[in-house]
Design a protein that fits this description.
elongated; mainly alpha
Length: 318
């Protein structure tokens, strides 16, 4: 792709549209990823992606797969807009006289983009995880209650009411202030900065392979495939950090599940009690989420839907 200068409003609109389309398509897989990552040895409710989705539909209905989607759809627009626009911003300022960026500078641009996006990503992930994992915890408690009823004549437990994003936000702000929404910030940085360092240079170089001319954009399918390959590669590479982030940001725990005091404590307990393979829980789900999400994002972003819409505005006024 030629380094054509795109206006900031167009970048933000493109990033927002890309995020909305991508999240809508892959959110159920993301929900399964969160639930698979959070379940610990001895408390396994789900055995695989398909098992998780089937059980979710049976117990919570079709829309149960979209618990937390409203939060994601609301905040993914600024999150994706910041990520994509920041990468372009850093690439532009790191380049000299339009010369090709070195790999190191491409990685620095990705690092800057990943650092900027956590402003929105951390509270978005914090709220989304609580809503996504509520069904797993409720199902586990229901199972435990049913088992205890078999062995005793205790009355049937009351139906558990699940909190909304607004209720969680109010409670966190009331009890911990704005810092409550930024729990797991360090782990989010640990995931998103390396992700962007891997993703953006890999995407840029893969996308260039499809350009017949440096001054002409690559075909949309090349941008899509480049986004898919780069996204899935980066997602798997940083999955251990994503598992740690998910565990740290979960406010509710299932029966007999570990709690963690920080990144090092979480890493140590997972390694000792669940083994090294636990760091790759949900890796294939994350790859399935990120691949189409970033493939779609890059197509929308580089095709430039926003430029077309913004160009139409003056003509309508005329």
């Amino acid at each position: 792709m030629a380094d054509k200068q795109i206006s900031l409003p167009a970048k933000l609109i493109n990033g927002g549209i890309a995020g909305l389309i991508g999240v809508t398509c892959v959110f159920p897989i993301d929900l399964a990823k969160t639930r698979l990552q959070n379940q610990q040895n001895g408390q396994r409710m789900y055995t695989s992606l398909s098992d998780c989705l089937i059980k979710t539909i049976r117990s919570e209905g079709y829309f149960g797969m979209y618990r937390g989607a409203a939060v994601n759809l609301t905040l993914v627009t600024p999150e994706k807009a910041i990520k994509l626009a920041a990468n372009d911003f850093f690439r532009h300022h790191l380049s000299k006289d339009g010369k090709k960026l070195t790999l190191l500078k491409e990685m620095l641009a990705g690092c800057g983009a990943g650092t900027c996006q956590v402003i929105v990503t951390t509270p978005m992930e914090m709220l989304k995880i609580q809503l996504q994992d509520a069904g797993r915890i409720a199902a586990q408690r229901k199972l435990m209650a049913a088992q205890s009823q078999i062995s005793s004549s205790s009355p049937e437990p009351a139906v558990e009411r699940r909190p909304t994003a607004t209720q969680i936000t109010r409670e966190l702000l009331r009890s911990k202030g704005i810092a409550g929404l930024y729990k797991g910030l360090g782990a989010t940085l640990l995931r998103d900065v390396p992700f962007s360092i891997v993703y953006f240079p890999l995407f840029a170089n893969l996308n260039k392979l499809g350009q017949k001319d440096p001054n002409v954009k690559a075909p949309f399918y090349v941008s899509f495939l480049s986004g898919c390959v780069a996204g899935s590669t980066a997602a798997v590479a940083v999955n251990p950090c994503d598992v740690i982030k998910t565990r740290l940001q979960s406010l509710q725990r299932g029966v007999n599940e570990d709690t963690y005091s920080g990144i090092l404590d979480c890493t140590k307990k997972i390694w000792q009690r669940e083994g090294p393979t636990a760091f790759f829980k949900g890796a294939y789900c994350r790859a399935l989420v990120i691949a189409p999400l970033f493939g779609i994002a890059q197509v929308v972003y580089f095709v430039g839907i926003a430029e077309f819409l913004l160009d139409m505005l003056p003509k309508r006024r005329a």
